[in-house]
Amino acid sequence: MDELSLLAAANEAPNRDCLVVNGTIFSYGDLADRVCAALSVLMARGVTRGDRVALSPRLDLDSIVWLYALFELGCPAVLLHPRLRDREQALVLAESEPKHVIAEPPPRNLQTVAPKRFESISPDSTLAIVYTSGSKGRPRGARLSRRAFVASASAHTANLDWLPDDRWLLTMPLAHVGGLSIITRSLIARRCVVLGRTAFDPREVAQVMESQEVTLLSVVPTMLWRLLKLAQPEWKPSVGLRAVLVGGAPFPDALRELAVDRHVPTLATYGCTEACSQISTQVPRQSGQRGSGRPVLGVDVRIESGEIQVRGEVLMDGYLGEDRSGEPWTPGGWLRTGDFGSFLPDGQLLVLGRIDDLIVTGGENVAPQEVEAWLEAVPGIAMACVFSQPHEEWGEEVCAAVVIEGAEYSEDALRDRMREALATHKRPKRIALVETLPLNRTGKIDRAAARSLSVDKLRTI
Fold first, then answer.
1. What is the mean pLDDT of residues 251-262?
2. Looking at the domain covering 6-352, what would its CATH class be?
């Protein structure tokens, strides 16, 4: 059985729900005809197995159909984020050299001649080329194999398992592995995906979760915060919602506690593009606890000089034009994640932040994420971003931008709390009060943008 074949799934269970778009339910059988129509177009344009095909997928039916067609034909999908500017897109296309660029909807004419079954495809072949966020320079394309996606799906299943009527709400960008993995996991399990919209509207998300009986949801912490704060007053999940996977950025303790108070079954998860999404994920009994769970099935994790390193079948084959030699690989085949971390006494992985975000002030190391988590637990502070500014004496000075909520915030009280709870070198020396914090394409706080927007507002505390 080809787990990543929509057509095989349609042969097995043609009437099973596959996709919900704006309330309309499409079965696997319904989508098989549309995928065959898309395949006809690709084949007519000379696209054959192994050819790279680029597309800019959005959260819509057309993009999903094109992706299924590329999976079926065995063509690596080069994923272009819809927000890329022309210059950025040109750089990706120049590097990836796709045979074809999809720039139109799939045909609506369902009278096609494309075969409804193809020969099996090697699990070692590339399924997708997914670009990293480029935290150490320009973005790099990670080559992720079919084997890696199947291994990642198996790890998810072992961690959470599936129920017959599971529906996963997709609100994450499809150009990132977190969003794409929802499609691949659900296809492999022959389950249903509910499409959200590109712009995350917490009120709409809450309504869709209720009306479409969503059981699974993946979000970054900012999305969860908006859902809990900006949806209907005192929003609480339906009984059927069994897991909200929270990853992509540090999960503040205050947000975890708020989710527990609202009976939201959050599961903290940690992963990266190069590892095809999940590296560690909590199980339901750990919901609300500190940490990001134990390493998932088939993934080995070690801590070397404070850095999280991983290995397993979920790993990429390398960046475009590179193999598994040199950075970020160790001689023993471990992937260096560039993240600080440690193991808690119960075996859960604790992620402490990016090594390249580290602030060195007066010879002392400060992880911004640790200070952010502390700030966000202070009454009146809704969100925080910690960064550095040059300092003549200390080299770098710890600064923060904070979003204030309600009337609880007091600068004097904050100063007293910092003296009691934070080491001197960890205390922000200057703070800017801002209305919002800028986010990047994945919904994480954009530290560089927050720094540039806040500098003029910084004042000594």
1. 89
2. alpha beta
What does the alpha-carbon distance between residue 166 and residue 155 come to, in Å, rounded to a whole number?
Answer: 17
Nearest to 155 by CA among 260, 288, 310: 310
User: Using one digit for the tens of pLDDT, what is the confidence trace for 421-450?
Assistant: 888 889 999 999 999 999 877 677 888 899
Give the tokens for residue 204. Answer: 């709409």
With H, G, I as helix, E, B as strand and everything else as coil, classify residue 41.
helix
In whole angstroms, give the CA distance from residue 359 to residue 167.
Answer: 42
Distance CA 15, CA 23 (A): 17
Closest by CA position to 258, among listed 231, 279, 280 = 231
pTM of the model: 0.84
CA 208, 210, 215, 220 torsion-angle sign: positive
The strand pairing partners of 142, in sequence order, are: 130, 319
| Candidates 3.30.200.210, 3.40.50.170, 3.40.50.10750, 3.30.300.30; CATH matching 358-460 | 3.30.300.30
For the chain, domain boundaries? 6-352, 358-460
Q: What pLDDT band is residue 241 in, cutting at 50, 70 and 90?
A: very high
For residue 349, the SS3 value is strand
Cα angle vertex 385, ends 351, 267, to 5°? 40
Cβ–Cβ contacts within 10 Å for residue 403, how many? Answer: 17
> Does residue 133 surpass a pLDDT of 70?
no
Q: What amino acid is encoded at 343 in this protein?
A: F
| Contact criterion met (CB below 8 Å) for 131 and 272 | no
- H-helix or E-strand spanning residue 208: helix 202-211
CB-based contacts of 259: which residues, under 8 Å, 6+ apart?
224, 228, 244, 266, 288
Burial 58-71 (b: 16+ CB within 10 A, else e): bbebbbbbbbbbbb
